[in-house]
Amino acid sequence: MNEFAQSLDRLLADACPPAFVRAVEQGASAEPLWRALEGSGYLDALVPEGRGGAGLGLADAFDLFMLQGRHAVPVPLAATMAARGLGLSQGDALPRELAAVVTAAQIVGALERVLELSVTFANQRVQFGRPIGKFQAIQHPLAVMAEQVTAARLAAQIGCQTNAPADDEANDEASRLRPDRLRAAVAKARTSEAAAIVAPMAHAIHGAIGITAELDLQLYTRRLHAWRAEHGSELAWQRVLGEAVLASDEPLILDFMRGALLPP
Predict the structure, then answer these.
(1) Distance of CA 99 to the CA centre of its chain
(2) How far is 73 from 225, CA to CA, in rounded Å?
(3) pLDDT (tens digit, 0 to 9) for every residue of the chain, 264 residues total?
(4) Per DSSP, which regions of the chain are E strands?
(5) Domains of the chain by range and CATH?
(6) Partner of 100 at 20 to 30 A CA spacing, among 57, 67, 77, 170?
(7) How far apart are CA 67 and CA 106, in angstroms?
(8) How far is CA 147 from each of CA 141, 191, 251, rounded to the nearest angstrom?
């Protein structure tokens, strides 16, 4: 995580703790959080420098998007950043591919937090005189979760890569924020798939307490299930990839993926 993202991480830790998230979900105003974000300048992080922003591209913004999931931010922070970067009017929808990669990054943040909560719980919860994390029945799902989180992060980072050279000043904001369709498909399909695996495993590790409103886990798993379906589920994006493979002249799927996903 770069210094720019670390600063936002600290801001969200102070302005958006779990207690605030719960209050907003129960009807409290999110205005204090919006004021803090507006004052920080992060909402204009993707706006071109010529229009007063930081001019970040998608790859640079990945960690910023991810932090919305990590902190269960109850306002559309990442989508607002992307919309302002494109100069969209309020209410305008993000292009499909961009919305997919933004959501994929949010999923990664929530996945990483769910894994952390599960590891901590497994190390603290004691049964039969030992932390349950010492038992193979718990170690195995934790290992699977870690594998899924790592794969999801890599896929989401691929989705945030664009074909526009980073040092090409002639590129307008549209090209800086226009993800490749196949990379977007990989990002959203893989992160949604991971969400479907990690969320139930986390609840299984926590047991009955995992579904209680008092535990923070549900703040993240509920968002995982919602984001999994938003802007195309894994099935929808896997269909995009499958159709592209069938239409390709590459004899091997590996060769197709290399050509489609690696930077030119």
Answers:
(1) 11
(2) 15
(3) 788 899 999 999 999 999 999 999 999 999 999 999 999 999 999 999 888 999 999 999 999 999 999 999 999 999 999 999 999 987 789 998 999 999 999 999 999 999 999 999 999 999 888 999 899 999 999 999 999 999 999 999 999 988 765 444 445 556 789 999 999 999 999 999 999 999 999 999 999 888 898 899 999 999 999 999 999 999 999 999 999 988 888 777 777 777 777 665
(4) 126-127, 130-131
(5) 3-261 (1.20.140.10)
(6) 170
(7) 7
(8) 10, 12, 29
